[in-house]
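Researcher: Sequence recovery benchmark, item below. Answer with residues only.
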């Protein structure tokens, strides 16, 4: 069933070839100036982020040795959640984009980095860095538009399966890393025979190995360490009073093993909670940056023979920023500056705040929108879209007009 035809003016409509060429030159100059300025302060930043993430992870793991005690479990889960968010958003995503390759550091490099999530680095770089950032918001080409399971644009053909998308939207939110891990398989390509069986087998093997390492780490190894530590502690305490308590030494050992099992379960549930917190946060930031009302989608015929300037305009208008303070931007991997990230995906994320005023000036000169909004507003728009487009029909929401500084004093 087709959506009704409702025309939204393309942001490219009023720009001549000459203007697009000049716009591309201006954006290229912003990128070149920023790259030329990269240096020691940028290196210190990413190294300090990695050190902070590792300290948070160590703190969380140590606290979760005592996970059967509620205060330790709460504090440990919080520290581990923050660690996973920082590693996933500000470090892993950005390192894998090649933002720090200029340092020529053999560890902090897109060719060697692996991250704490279920997706393999190879699959992520293909589905995200190449497919999504090349074909951003092109209907039928950008596989991130609804992640192939949701209808998030009225121009997408409706199917009865979308009636269930409010439910599997919640599942995707909670288990986002696993959805991303499977995303690059590209089930449509498999169904149509565009992927060989050998390639599918190789990719499934990579997913299986990464999934195994994640499950062993978070649900077996670390919880087992917590269980053994608490069992040993209990055994020592019980041994001191074994002669005075029922069951003697055997009873003491049974009680110690019981305490160890309790600690194992508590640590495993804490790890699961930390993973879900990270997944929900990553989902929220990514969806807010791509699917609120302000963003434009493009038909393939609109971008045939696309120029460099046309590519910049598509990246600019196909993304949306999320307003927030410095801590918010660190926690979001600086993807609160999603517009700047799509314009310059290989620039270090810490430079986006500096670049943003220059991007706004370009928008103002060329009569283009600069999409931005508060976090809860953007998230609300996305959830409304997911609910509405689960049903047939639907029309594009109004798009913002050209950016004017006097109209946006907060920006």
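Model:
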């Amino acid at each position: 069933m087709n959506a009704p035809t409702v025309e939204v003016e393309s942001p490219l409509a009023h720009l001549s070839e000459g203007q697009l060429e000049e716009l591309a030159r201006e954006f290229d100059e912003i990128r070149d100036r920023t790259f030329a300025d990269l240096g020691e302060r940028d290196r210190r930043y990413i190294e300090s982020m990695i050190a902070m993430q590792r300290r948070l992870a160590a703190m969380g793991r140590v606290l979760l040795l005592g996970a059967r005690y509620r205060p330790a479990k709460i504090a440990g889960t919080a520290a581990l959640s923050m660690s996973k968010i920082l590693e996933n958003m500000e470090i892993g995503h950005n390192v894998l984009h090649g933002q720090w390759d200029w340092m020529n550091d053999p560890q902090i490099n897109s060719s060697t980095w692996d991250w704490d999530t279920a997706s393999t680095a190879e699959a992520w770089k293909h589905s995200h860095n190449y497919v999504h950032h090349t074909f951003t918001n092109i209907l039928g080409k950008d596989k991130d538009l609804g992640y192939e399971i949701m209808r998030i644009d009225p121009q997408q053909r409706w199917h009865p399966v979308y009636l269930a998308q409010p439910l599997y939207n919640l599942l995707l939110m909670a288990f986002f890393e696993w959805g991303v891990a499977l995303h690059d398989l590209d089930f449509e390509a498999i169904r149509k025979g565009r992927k060989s069986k050998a390639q599918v087998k190789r990719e499934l093997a990579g997913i299986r190995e990464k999934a195994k390492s994640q499950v062993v780490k978070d649900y077996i190894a670390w919880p087992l360490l917590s269980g053994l530590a608490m069992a040993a502690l209990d055994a020592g305490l019980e041994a001191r009073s074994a002669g005075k308590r029922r069951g003697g030494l055997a009873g003491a050992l049974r009680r110690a093993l019981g305490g160890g099992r309790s600690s194992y379960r508590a640590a495993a549930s804490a790890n699961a909670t930390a993973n879900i917190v990270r997944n929900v946060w990553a989902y929220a930031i990514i969806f807010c940056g791509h699917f609120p009302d302000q963003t434009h989608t493009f038909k393939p015929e609109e971008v045939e023979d696309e120029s460099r300037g046309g590519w910049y305009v598509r990246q600019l208008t196909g993304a949306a920023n999320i307003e927030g303070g410095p801590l918010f931007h660190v926690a979001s991997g600086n993807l609160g500056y999603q517009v700047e990230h799509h314009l310059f995906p290989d620039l270090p994320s810490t430079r986006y705040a500096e670049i943003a005023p220059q991007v706004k000036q370009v928008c103002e000169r060329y009569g283009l929108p600069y999409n931005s909004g508060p976090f809860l507003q953007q998230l609300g728009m996305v959830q409304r879209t997911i609910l509405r487009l689960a049903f047939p029909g639907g029309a594009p929401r109004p798009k913002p007009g050209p950016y004017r500084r006097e109209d946006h004093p907060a920006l």
